[in-house]
């Protein structure tokens, strides 16, 4: 009897410690994530970067990442201090999970599109460089939002609130729903965009190396110097492209 009581007390203590860690760690994640994404939005919305397609994709990614933080971390954080309405109200449960998964997926694919844009803009082929435009970036963003929303529309059927036989009260109502959504998120939101980012990132490096080899040809040395140096400084568009490439690699 005393053994069962001590085990119950231990489980209760561990649950309490876990809840406290999740509560205060969530505050740190939410704080740094929100500040970082807001600063990104302020920088990328400046006039000098506003018409750059890669900057547009980074800006859209920062906005969707902010939505992900609010729908994911902020809601769970507030639940730690009071009752979580998403656990008891069915439509709110479905809507929060849909926004969380949808925005997370959109953010990942926007970074992937930024990788494609850097590959196009660094190509030695003129027709590919001409495809790196703000209009194409905007069309790509719109198409991405529509497709992602269609893919995760299943959440409105699969998720339900007030569940008692699930890890969370707001969760997939059947085993098949849980497997389907988990598989969709793992492939569509993580695996496929990560693989494409690696492929296009590698091809971007190859483009840069090809461009460097073309520039060191003896007959083009003087033209290169005129192009890359103006009063001892690099032109603004070169600096912008280099900074965006560094940001992309950091992502």
Description:
The chain has a single domain (2-215, 234-250), classed as Rhopdopsin 7-helix transmembrane proteins. The chain is 79% helix and 2% strand. It has ten helices and two strands, in the order αααααααββααα. The chain has helices at residues 2-44, 47-50, 53-81, 90-121, 126-129, 134-151, 155-158, 175-215, 221-228, 236-250, and strands spanning 159-160, 171-172. Strands 1-2 form a two-stranded antiparallel sheet. Helix 1 (2-44) packs antiparallel against helix 3, helix 3 packs antiparallel against helix 4 and helix 4 (90-121) packs antiparallel against helix 6 (134-151). The longest helix has 43 residues, at 2-44. 28% of the residues are buried.
Give me some keywords for this one.
251 residues, mainly alpha, Rhopdopsin 7-helix transmembrane proteins, 2% strand
Topology pattern, helix = H, strand = E = HHHHHHHEEHHH
How would you classify the helix and strand content by structural class? mainly alpha
- The shape, in one word, is elongated
CATH architecture: Up-down Bundle
The order of strands across the largest sheet is: 1-2
The CATH topology corresponds to Rhopdopsin 7-helix transmembrane proteins
Write out the CATH superfamily name: Rhodopsin 7-helix transmembrane proteins
Mean residue pLDDT: 81
